[in-house]
Design goal:
The protein folds into three domains: 245 residues, 4-Layer Sandwich (Glutamine Phosphoribosylpyrophosphate, subunit 1, domain 1), CATH 3.60.20.10; 187 residues, Rossmann fold (3-Layer(aba) Sandwich); 147 residues, Glucose-6-phosphate isomerase like protein, domain 1 (Rossmann fold). It contains 19 helices and 27 strands. The strands form five sheets. Strands 3-2-4-1-10-9-11-14 form an eight-stranded antiparallel sheet, with helices on one face. Helix 7 runs antiparallel to helix 15, helix 9 packs parallel to helix 13 and helix 9 packs antiparallel against helix 17. The relative contact order is 0.09. The chain binds 5-amino-5-deoxy-1-O-phosphono-D-mannitol. The site of 5-amino-5-deoxy-1-O-phosphono-D-mannitol has 16 residues, from helix 9 and helix 17.
């Protein structure tokens, strides 16, 4: 949550920073702001509540020059999304400017201490304390800027990425991180900072990860990293394997629509290279085969859409390995007392690799002795760094706040993890594993075919856009798909939407059925799961009899599904465990189209941000 950009170099800093903020706006869009050190050494600050367009108008009316600067796009935690609470925040002398992502948990104590010494606050944020503390530290230590930032970091509790300016050091920026992300972009004669690489991808593809509890000083000539005590540390370099075009809309109205279309490639790229001979290989494996063989219990921990990928993965892992699997929301798992030991494998799924609850669940699991395997779309993010093994999804950058292509890539990845476990435990032969992999490798083409068939969904979406609510029903792997369809509709179209296992209907939810209520049914395959298919036909009949408008996602050639369905959306027939990779697609399109028909911003739904780095 919150996007941060920093720049030192020969270009006009304002342009670089504002462009970077536009690319990071998906991280939060309650307000935005910039601070640039002018040629006269004076801070120039512009900040505005609302989207970056509002900041653009503010900036257009002024001349802001300078080659050292930073910016922030906010997802509000402490303090309403107003101009006053927008970042950057300054000290009383306008010497120090600070932008912050995260939550400073002890800010009340620090604020009281500062107020007692006569400091007046200009905002209600937790972040402002940092500007005043750095100013006080500079006065105390004789003006050593990096040292002042390190000293302040040692006093802070919670999660923070801080980027700070001191007008006495106009050619440098000092930044720090704990539990929130920050990367350095290394250019020729210029250096960048960003919450993620999208902030500077236009200028450089060489980057450096900043580790936990580290401070970096950037200048035009490069960067120096230390820990919070001032001990030098080496940063981890990496090359960004995608370019600017991947972070742009490329002719689509919304990133989400582009990302839906990119799903065949996201799944194909995620599978590529993971079958070597007849063996499944992970990306980073700091676990030996004996440890994988010893696994007797799997927990999948994740949030939101990634949790739904876990529910699908459970079906595959249990089927192939016979190891019991529990899937838990990370926010619940981390605060209870799950039974974990060295034989437990915790699979943490996170697109961003920085979701606060999932990260804490990983830490909790490792403290209890469990092994952790991360599935992540972001190279070098905190969750994979802290895990024993990593499987990277290769979906490319996902800018739309609603997860689409990363969801499908996560499903493919967790299924490969299931095959890797089956291989280690010997519950599947090598040729069976290779056979499953080959089936999975055919799916990207089927996703592409599904995308060709969703025209009807667009018309249907416009038709049901004014409904009060939509229900989603599924069974087996179709149930998590129903949950995901409902989540997409809630977050994009702000409609009441619920996903249920169809077998639960008569235990309560059927009371919600009324005349004309759209109910989306994810149909099991008549060949793959004939019994469930039969049960689902009965469920459709029951709700149709009570007035529901049934929209059935069914396999091609499923003539029985048509009998009670008001609408049928056909998807290709694929093996049951892989069917969510196709049945999800029409539900994504449905949600995006309904949101558009209702006039909402598909990429930036209200109140949300892409990465949830605070609890
Ligand atoms: O980055 P993560 O995969 O850890 O994010 C988890 C959820 O916040 C995320 O999947 C969220 O539910 C989606 N953006 C919803 O579309």
């Amino acid at each position: 949550m919150c996007g941060i950009v920093g720049y030192v170099g020969p270009r006009p800093a304002l342009e670089v920073v504002v462009e970077g903020l536009r690319r990071l706006e998906y991280r939060g869009y309650d307000s935005s702001g910039v601070a640039i050190i002018g040629p006269d050494g004076v801070l120039q600050v512009a900040k505005k509540a609302g989207r970056i367009e509002n900041l653009d108008k503010e900036i257009a009316a002024r001349t802001i020059a300078g080659s050292t600067g930073m910016g922030h796009t906010r997802w509000a935690t402490h303090g309403a999304p107003t101009d006053r609470n927008a970042h950057p925040h300054l000290d009383a002398q306008d010497r120090v400017a600070v932008v912050h992502n995260g939550i400073i948990e002890n800010f009340m104590v620090l604020r009281a201490e500062l107020e007692a010494s006569g400091v007046e606050f200009a905002s209600e944020t937790d972040s402002e304390v940092v500007a005043h503390l750095i100013a006080a530290e500079l006065a105390r230590n004789g003006g050593d800027f990096p040292d002042a930032v390190r000293a302040v970091c040692r006093r802070l509790d919670g999660a923070f990425t801080l980027v700070t300016l001191d007008t006495s050091c106009p050619g440098s920026i000092v930044a720090a991180r704990r539990n929130s992300p920050l990367v350095v972009g290394v250019g020729k004669g210029e250096t960048f900072l960003g919450s993620d690489v999208a902030a500077f991808i236009e200028f450089t593809r060489d980057a450096v990860e900043l580790g936990q509890d580290q401070v970096v000083v950037i200048t035009r000539d490069g960067y120096e990293i230390t820990d919070f005590t001032g001990e030098p540390v080496n940063g981890k370099h990496f090359h960004i394997d995608w370019d600017l075009s991947a972070a742009e809309k490329g002719g689509y109205d919304y990133f989400m629509l582009k990302e839906i279309e990119e799903q065949p490639a996201a799944v194909a790229d995620t599978l590529r290279g993971h079958l070597v001979g007849a063996r499944i290989v992970l990306d980073e494996q700091r676990l030996d085969n004996q440890e994988l063989r010893d696994v007797d219990k799997v927990f999948v921990v994740a949030c939101g859409t990634a949790y739904h990928a876990g529910l699908i993965g459970k079906q595959a892992i249990e089927h192939w390995t016979r190891i019991p699997v529990e899937v838990e929301m990370a926010s619940e798992f981390r605060y209870r007392d799950p039974v974990l030991n060295r034989q437990t494998l915790v699979v943490a799924i996170s697109q961003s690799g920085e979701t606060a609850d999932t990260l804490e669940a990983v830490r909790h699991a490792r403290q209890q002795g469990a092994r952790v395997l991360a599935i992540c779309n972001t190279n070098g993010a905190q969750i994979p760094r802290e895990s024993d093994a990593v499987f990277y999804t290769h979906a490319g950058p996902e800018i739309g706040v609603a997860a689409t292509k990363t969801f499908l890539a996560q499903i493919a990845a967790v299924e490969l993890v299931g095959l890797a476990l089956a291989q280690a435990r010997g519950t599947k032969w090598g040729d069976e594993i290779a056979g499953e992999f080959e089936e999975l490798a055919k799916i990207p083409a089927e996703i592409a075919r599904t995308l060709d068939c969703v025209q009807d969904v667009r018309a249907l979406a416009r038709d049901i856009a004014s409904s009060k609510a939509v229900l989603f029903l599924g069974r087996h792997v179709g149930f998590p798909v129903a949950l995901e369809g409902a989540l997409k509709l809630k977050e994009l179209a702000y409609m009441h939407a619920e996903g249920f296992p169809a077998g639960e209907l008569k235990h309560g939810p059927i009371a919600l059925i009324e005349d004309g209520l759209p109910v989306v049914v994810v149909m099991p395959s008549p060949r793959g799961r004939p019994l469930l298919h039969q049960k689902m036909l009965s469920n459709i009949a029951e709700i149709a009899a009570r007035g529901a408008r049934t929209i059935v996602i069914a396999e091609e050639g499923d003539t029985a599904a048509r009998i009670h369905a008001a609408h049928v959306v056909e998807v290709p027939a694929v093996p049951t465990l892989y069917s969510p990779l196709v049945t999800t697609v029409p539900l994504q399109v449905l949600a995006a189209e309904i949101a558009q028909a209702r006039g909402y911003d598909v990429d930036k739904p209200r109140n949300l941000a892409k990465s949830v780095t605070v609890e």
